[in-house]
Each structure stands twice: as structure tokens, then as C-alpha cells.
Amino acid sequence: MLAAMVVKAADKPPEPPKQFALLPKIINGGIAGIIGVSVVFPLDLVKTRLQNQTVGPNGEKQYKSMLDCFRKTYAAEGYFGMYRGSGVNILLITPEKAIKLACNDMFRHYLTLKDGTLPIPRQMLAGGMAGACQIVVTTPMELLKIQMQDAGRLAAAAKAEGRTIERVTAMQLTRRLLKERGILGLYRGVGATGARDVSFSVVYFPTFAILNDMGPKDKPGGSPPFWWSFGSGCFAGSSAALAVNPLDVVKTRMQSLAKGSPQYNGIIHCITTILTNEGPLAFFKGGACRVMVIAPLFGIAQTIYYIGLAEKLFSLF
Known about the structure:
Layout: H1 2-11, H2 22-52, H3 66-81, H4 86-111, H5 120-160, H6 170-181, H7 190-213, H8 226-243, H9 245-254, H10 267-278, H11 287-307, H12 309-314
């Protein structure tokens, strides 16, 4: 009888390979992005303004610190001023986060070895390819967001000098860029954006995966509780954000189109100009604020993503 059971077990066909469902991942990524960016956008606005301000001839700065920027922005523009540029960001964050999170999962799925393991170099490759895929959406989104965020800073400075600046909407800005520069005008700074996003994803995704896998699980192979995924996302996001902050400063400077802002011929020119005029510490402008933005953003987004709302919705039909 035992021999018969062994033969029966041996004859049992192997389990079919696990399928990868892309559509639910895309929907989860979109939902995660909207919720995450809505929570942390005021911090992102402060980060952009701190990175964009340059030191005057006598060493004067418009903002002395992150708190000073918060206070002056709120005093000059009110509560809704803290969400300047959020409309275009929330609109485009859906495909951006959907591409980033879903593509990482897809590449991890196809790069996993036959024994079910995924070495760290392959995890880094999957993250880097996901970061490269997202720049088609990230570049115009960041460009428009930065213009809208920086408009308040310029308006506040002009008001202090007794001048007024006409503010434009995201749609007006898009039309102007398309008219003056064509479709490539929306991709100003794409090289710096790509360098930042690829580098960030190479660091972030493997770090999150390793930390998340270390969490407590109800059963072998199961998912850790949401609070563990949130903490893993925060730590991985803050680590990656700090590592690539110099590239984020370069990207922000290259995408600034305001009159009077320095104009750069490329990434190397931007780096050398900043080093010459402001010193190496300028590459970490807004660094603390960026960490404060990215940590909860990815903590929230990763938690929402791993909850799997789309899969649960699809199971009802």
C-alpha cells in the first residue's frame, strides 16, 4: 500500500508555473500613488523650493530652513498654496507609480531563477529597468510640478519687491512648452531624471524586498503584516532618497524654466556650475525634506500596493 502511495505521488503532475497578472498590479500601483502623493505633497513642495533657491551675492537666502519655508509659504499662499502643482502630479502619479511598481514585480517575476530564488544583482537589475520604464511619465510630470511649485516662490519674492507675477495653470504651461519647444520641451532634464530614477530604484526595491521578507508571517511564504511593509517602505525609501539626492538637485535645477534661473547645457555643466558657485553641500539641499517626503510616500504606497485592492475587487466578479 505504501508503495502504491509513493507511485501515485510520483505520478502527480507538477504544479503549473505561477502566472503574473499585470492589470491588478497596475491598478494597485495607481491607487497607491494617488494616496501617497496626496499625503506628502506639501513636504515635496518645500523640498522643491529649497532646492531651487540660490544663494545671493551677499550669501542671503529666501528660506533659512525647511520650517521657515513652510511658514513663509503658508503665510503668503495659504493652505491651498501648499498643494500648488498637486493637480498635475496626482493626475500623472497614477501611471507613474503603476509603471514603477508593476514593472518591478514583472521583471522580478521573469528574472527569478528556476529554484525560486532571486539573487540581489537580479533584484537590482529588475529595479533599474522599472526605474527606466517610468521616466516616460516622470519627466513631464516632474517638469510641470516643479514649475507650478516654484511659481509661488517667485511670486512671493516679487511681492516683497513690490512687483507682481502672473501665475499660469498647468494646462497653460503645457501649451506654452509645446508651442515653444515641441514635445521635447516636456522632456527637459530627461537624462538627469533617468539617472535619478534608475539609481533610486536600484537601491530601493532590493532593500524593500529584503526587509519586507524578514517580517513576521502567519504562514511560510505568506505576506508580513501591513505595518511591517509600511516600515520597510519608509526605511528603504529614505535610504534610496538620501543616496540619490545630488541627482535630484541636478534634475530640479535643469527643469527650472523661470526667468533669472541659471541655464545649463547638460548634466555635467549643471554639476560643475553648482560646485563652482555653491560648493558640494548644495547637492544635499532639501535632502532632509526629500527623505521626509519619500519615506512616508513609499511606505504608504508600498503598503497599499501589497494589500492588493485590485485582486480583491476582481475576486468579487
